[in-house]
Amino acid sequence: MSSKPTGSMMGRRNSGTENIDKLTTEDMLAAILKDDREITNAIATCLPTVTRLVDRAVATFSRGGRVVIVGAGASGRAAMQVACEFAPDTHHGLIGLIAGGPEAMLQELEAAAGDYDRGINDLQAIHFNQNDMLLGLSVSGKTPWVWGALRYARSLDAPVAVITQDAGSEVAQLADIVIAPDTGPEVVVGFANPKARLAQRQILTMLSTGLAIRTGRVYGNLRVDINASSTRWAERQIAIVMEATHCSRAQAKETLGSCNHDCRTAILMLLTGLDVWNARDVLAENSEHLRISLEEAKRRSVQKAS
């Protein structure tokens, strides 16, 4: 067997960093930083497709479906992390699955990643259905567990999207939406794919942030769905209400106390003069979307005045 690097590996070598092991530490880090700038440019090229992903995910949420993100290894851990960090409550439809389950969060489980049937079984276990949406993560596009999950979702006619480095891979052929940012060769070849994974993580952040905004968890650029689960978060609530309504700290604290420390209700009360019961009713009628609830409250106020 030849000991020479394969043609594909040679093709992935970064000509700009071939002598990186000879550089000073500062120059080495500068080269890495310069190369990482390609990530943002690669994602910008994919922006129309990322837009389709976010809009489809919002549509899935609006009909009561779930967005399930699946991956193996580092991709699976990214899926779990973005789902866990999406919202302070558990009443949302963003779910992460990793090949091998919770144990795989701590160590690589190659056998699980290579199990096609388990990808199917893991979706069946959460009762995945045609109202849900599947987002598969696979940098190489060659993960059997992800293939199984994607094929199962397609068999149900559920929408399927993938984030991968290879637009011609197996996973890409199984998806309705393919996001394949060309981040170029890695700084160092042969171990991991940090640039591809950073691009994947940035796209996931765009998805989760976009979902939060479109589902009313954000007002302006303020996160208004946080809970007062600790003193620190209670203080964060007070600061957000003050910023959103330009009220005093005392007013924010008193109003939050009167509405069971619900941030959106407090803001709606202070901006419209509604009492807690009417504010809660308007929010409930508008799926807890604060911006829409404010517009509705103002519309009712104008009608009442006329």
Automatic annotation (TrEMBL):
UniProt keyword annotation of Lyase present: yes
Start and end residues of each stretch annotated as Disordered: 1-20
CDD domains listed in its UniProt record: SIS_Etherase
Domain SIS: 57-217
InterPro entries the record matches: Etherase_MurQ, MURQ/GCKR, SIS_dom, SIS_dom_sf
Key words of the record: Carbohydrate metabolism, Lyase
Protein's name in the database: N-acetylmuramic acid 6-phosphate etherase
